[in-house]
Design brief:
Strand content: 5-15%
Strand order of the largest sheet: 1-2
Largest sheet: 2 strands, parallel
Radius of gyration: 14 Å
Helix content: 40-55%
Oligomer: single chain
Distance between the termini: 43 Å
Number of strands: 2
Length: 81
């Protein structure tokens, strides 16, 4: 195991912990994210958080703020006002 893996493992929440999240959650994810694939990562995560909204950005990889800055800012403005 690499040293970084030890620390990343500590950031993983169980499904039970995710279900207990009560605040508003908006997840913005790139459709073309190769590092963290949308269908394998974002959808299961959003499914585990009862009140989560999931937004998939087309023509976007791992960095929505860089790949689709206008769409990213639009979502941020709607969320934060």
């Amino acid at each position: 195991m690499c040293l970084g893996g030890r620390y990343l493992d500590k950031t993983v929440l169980t499904k039970g912990e995710l279900r207990r999240i009560k605040c508003e959650v908006v997840s913005l994810h790139g459709a073309d994210d190769l590092a963290v694939p949308f269908r394998k990562a974002a959808i299961p995560l959003a499914d585990a958080i009862p009140q989560a909204d999931l937004i998939c950005l087309a023509d976007c990889g791992h960095g929505p703020a860089f790949d689709q800055p206008d769409k990213f800012l639009d979502v941020a403005r709607r969320l934060f006002g």
